[in-house]
């Protein structure tokens, strides 16, 4: 069943109610979900987000009864995941004049996903506005909530926020507004936050800051209930649940370095961890007492181990530490390998092998993708030559990821 509800003058919810038990992000959505899209019937008709690709045809047919598709001027894509952009391929064909509005990182994704290489795109940046003929849209970038390319859209005249996944609930609700649900939706709202947003809570502050200069009277997300009462309460839930709380977490970084590039990685890991108030002990294994390193590891919550690669192997006395670690009970600690290299970086993989012989929770890219969908965090942390630019950013993302794991641990 397609929804069609007027939220404000010429603003319509046109989404799909999916009341199956929906498999999603390795969860089963027991209460189903909705894919909320929005039609703004202004002088330059605009669609904000679409629906899951399974329902794209139904969505476009439904939309065609509400507006001349060829008159649509803009299709705003807040987030490229196919449960929201899935109707874009068909809608673009039926609305050939429409410009697709999205962030810069979204452009290539949409082109590749839906073969839109010859299509007009309007790339918007943080704070940009768009006149859609009688209404004004304002855009705010919200990177990593929950994927890199995401943004939120705000209708200035109607004070409605369209944040796509953010502030959603996974409920196949037949009452559109939360205040008419007939039950308190808070548990569903928090459950959604925990499942989808919490792994990215480091970025919630960007969202909260973005909301500060917006007078939001209604939140129209892309899953579940529309919020028009107690807006502040729902925003507060995001803000309070994203705050780092446990104090006293400790990390050890132990490394050996050939030409100081691995040392620089270690120092950057330390910097990012310390920004999250994690106490860090940094050891060059060639210059530190092994007993002291081992003692620190015993008391650490996370252990990073790194080496430069020289002649396809680790360097210095690092292996002595690793051998000792395989004899220790390191249960409950997070482990991660890192290093700089010039050709293949074998040392990093050897360190990873040692770490996986322990009973630590050893981080891997595969695990990160499976648990969070993040593709810009990599473990082991491999840096070719000196860490700078994009490679340095990768190091910092990985440190931030471990910091978040530590700070969310009870
Ligand atoms: Fe509802 Fe990230 O998709």
Question: Can you tell me about this structure?
Answer:
This protein is of the alpha/beta class and 410 residues long. 33% of the residues lie in helices and 21% in strands. It has helices spanning 56-64, 82-85, 88-94, 104-114, 186-197, 204-212, 231-241, 261-275, 290-298, 318-325, 346-357, 365-372, 389-408, and strands spanning 5-8, 11-13, 16-18, 22-24, 27-29, 33-35, 38-40, 46-48, 74-76, 99-102, 121-123, 129-131, 136-141, 151-155, 160-162, 218-219, 250-256, 279-284, 302-307, 334-341, 361-362, 381-384. The strands form five sheets. It has a seven-stranded mixed sheet with strand order 1-2-7-8-9-10-11. Strands 17, 18, 19, 20, 21 and 22 form a six-stranded parallel sheet that branches. Strands 12-13-14-15-16 form a five-stranded mixed sheet, with no helix packed on it. Bound molecules: MU-OXO-diiron (FEO). MU-OXO-diiron is lined by residues 79, 81, 83-84, 146, 165, 222-223. Residues 251-393 form the Flavodoxin-like domain. It holds the Pfam family ODP. InterPro entries: Flavodoxin/NO_synth, Flavoprotein-like_sf, Metallo-B-lactamas, ODP_dom, RibonucZ/Hydroxyglut_hydro, Rubredoxin-O_OxRdtase.
Keywords:
single chain; 410 residues; alpha/beta; Metallo-beta-lactamase, Chain A; seven-stranded mixed β-sheet; six-stranded parallel β-sheet; 22 strands; binds MU-OXO-diiron
